[in-house]
Prior knowledge:
The protein has about 325 residues and is an alpha+beta fold. The protein contains 8 helices and 17 strands. The protein has helices at about 55-70, 110-115, 160-165, 170-190, 230-235, 245-255, 270-290, 300-315; strands at about 15-20, 25-30, 35-40, 45, 45-50, 80-85, 85-90, 95, 100-105, 120, 125, 135-140, 145, 195-205, 210-215, 225, 245. Strands 8, 9, 12, 13, 14, 15, 16 and 17 form an 8-stranded antiparallel beta sheet that branches. Helix 1 runs parallel beside helix 7 (about 270-290). The two termini are about 35 Å apart.
Amino acid sequence: MKKALVKTDFNFPGQKSVYHGKVRDVYSVNEDLLVMVATDRISAFDVVLPEGIPYKGQMLNQIAAKFLDATTDICPNWKLASPDPMVTVGVRCEGFPVEMIVRGYLCGSAWRAYKSGVREICGVKLPEGMRENERFPEPIITPTTKAEIGEHDQDISKEEILAKGLATPEEYELLEKYTLALFKRGTEIAEKRGLILVDTKYEFGKHNGQIYLMDEIHTPDSSRYFYLEGYQERFEKGEAQKQLSKEFVREWLMENNFQGKAGQVIPEMTPEIVESISNRYIELYEHITGETFVKEETDNIHDRIEKNVTEYLQNK
């Protein structure tokens, strides 16, 4: 089994601090740079699982880098360079404390809520009579608060965001505009690859007074994809959709009685389970990029990252 990077402890030139997130480790360098390391950690239900997934960080970072580069005409983003397959270096932004979640189809947590009788999510009214995996007439935006580690994101409406001063009306209008335009672009790219971009999330922040897209974009950690071929047939029959996203990890956990609730125990992640998750991530990478995934050497990931990032910072 290949090795996975689950912990980092770098000391880059000019480093000020480090923040260890659920999946990414973010190093602050000098006054205005962030070095974001996509580790091989995996989280579900806001819990970091005990085993890392080989190549996951590389794949997530490379997908995000490709989509950041492919959307610079829509809005500015934080990325400056990707000096290592698992690293993106970019400008520091002051993040909005909300995540902009956009949904094109009724599934996942939204479907679970709908099935229980809920007809409004984040202030957005949902039509009656919808079925699981049905496409919305138009994509809907259902923001959440950004939770601290160990806490769950909470749904929040546009009205609540404005009332709490988390964004000004002008800022929120731009966040909505960028969110829908990015989702449209992601949908178009996915369709060319035989996929449906079902839902995703975006994070934004401000740099020099301007709103920037931050973090990852259109990865399986932040997005859900269905296969386009057979979607309609499966939907009409009420069958589960063939999908590429982290939802299969959540489903495996739920089948084993884990949803991140107090007292629940994470099921054993055997080498076979870990390998199957790694393979599913690589499958998505190859579908969404149209390129063969090239596995980087995993023996000395930490040393390689340190060397590549240090050289980039010294030559910047």
